[in-house]
Design brief:
This protein is an all-alpha fold. The chain has one domain: Alpha/alpha barrel (Mitochondrial carrier fold), CATH 1.50.40.10. It contains 11 helices and no strands. The longest helix is centred in the N-terminal third of the chain and has 37 residues, at 2-38. It starts with a helix and ends with a helix.
């Protein structure tokens, strides 16, 4: 009985403590709201510096930056995909140009057709760029702290490692949205009767998983991951390195960011285009009448394209790809840099 009584007393004391805490919180709420109303900047600053927000901000800033860039660059991405899919399996023949593809798109529909797949592009950025920039920032903070403990500075090797890891992890998470984007952008190349006519990215994801299985959402995941690692290596590692080198110059902070992002855009394009090409081919493919796919995987696709279309095909549309990647990298990195500054 005594043990039972002591348990009851302990429970009462705990309940009283909770009630008193709640009373105190409620009594202080009006004052907290008044303080926030009188000084919203301080209230916002306090929120931004909570442990949760400090961990989440790199991911939130990365996602917002990527979505902003995609809204600007989407028409160029549409032209890039159509260029990569033109003349599949044919080594010779007419070579499309960015201008001819753009004219064809506009002539066959409307100017807004250049924004086909925008919902998928935004979802991809919300997932992929949120993850890759967030992971990169998180990894770099850890590596920088580790280097500082050892009495060193984080160098290019650390930046490259963080970029490769962040890109690979983010690509696996974002592959379904990336697949939906390719399917939506390539749908117009099919005969009218064979088109899926997806109404949105959600419609595309649901129909692909229902008709082909959930695993189909990760079609082309291998080249997607390798492409993302190559792109991140070129973009984030070279951006971080270029910015570090430019700090020693007389250029202003904004000019440094702009110059570093331009350098990053070039290297990102150069390293990632062959993998982007193969990724597009794999994600676009559908089973033929015999039930077989044109390519069994990344290596098979590389081999067939090299034999049937020539090695130069992997770099077809490099100019368009660079015009797509470089501004996207520049807008993403500049916006992320700015958001990082205003939320620090």
């Amino acid at each position: 009985m005594s043990s039972s009584s002591s348990a009851v007393e302990a429970a009462k004391r705990q309940a009283d403590s909770v009630i008193n805490t709640a009373k105190t919180t409620f009594s202080e709420a009006p004052q907290a709201m008044k303080t926030a109303a009188e000084n919203p900047q301080k209230a916002t600053t306090d929120l931004l510096h909570t442990p949760f927000m400090r961990a989440a901000l790199p991911f939130l800033n990365g996602g917002l930056a990527g979505m902003t860039a995609t809204a600007v660059i989407q028409p160029i991405d549409m032209v890039k995909v159509r260029l990569q899919l033109a003349g599949e399996g044919i080594k010779s023949g007419p070579k499309p140009t960015p201008t001819s593809v753009t004219r064809e798109l506009i002539a066959s529909g409307k100017v807004l057709d250049l924004y086909t797949g925008l919902s998928a592009g935004l979802l991809r950025q919300a997932v992929y760029t949120t993850a890759r920039l967030g992971f990169f920032d998180t990894f770099m903070k850890t590596l920088t702290a580790r280097s500082a403990t050892a009495g060193n500075k984080a160098g290019f090797a650390e930046r490259a490692g963080a970029g490769l890891a962040a890109g690979g992890l983010a690509a696996m998470v974002g592959n379904p949205a990336d697949l939906a984007l390719i399917r939506m952008q390539s749908d117009g190349l099919k005969p009218a009767a064979a088109r899926a006519n997806y109404s949105s990215v959600i419609d595309a994801l649901l129909r692909i998983s229902r008709n082909e299985g959930v695993a189909a959402l990760w079609s082309g995941a291998t080249p997607t991951v390798v492409r993302a690692m190559a792109l991140n290596f070129g973009q984030l590692a070279f951006f971080s390195e270029a910015k570090s080198q430019l700090k020693e110059t007389s250029l202003g902070p904004r000019t440094q960011t702009l110059a570093a992002s331009a350098v990053a855009g070039f290297f990102a394009s150069f390293f990632s285009l062959p993998f982007d090409f193969v990724k597009t081919r794999l994600q676009r493919q559908t089973r033929g009448a015999d039930g077989r796919l044109p390519y069994s995987g990344m290596v098979d696709c590389f081999g067939k394209v090299a034999r049937e279309e020539g090695l130069g095909r992997f770099y077809r549309g490099f100019g368009t790809y660079y015009v797509r990647i470089a501004p996207h990298a520049m807008v993403t990195l500049i916006v992320a840099d700015y958001l990082g500054f205003v939320t620090k």
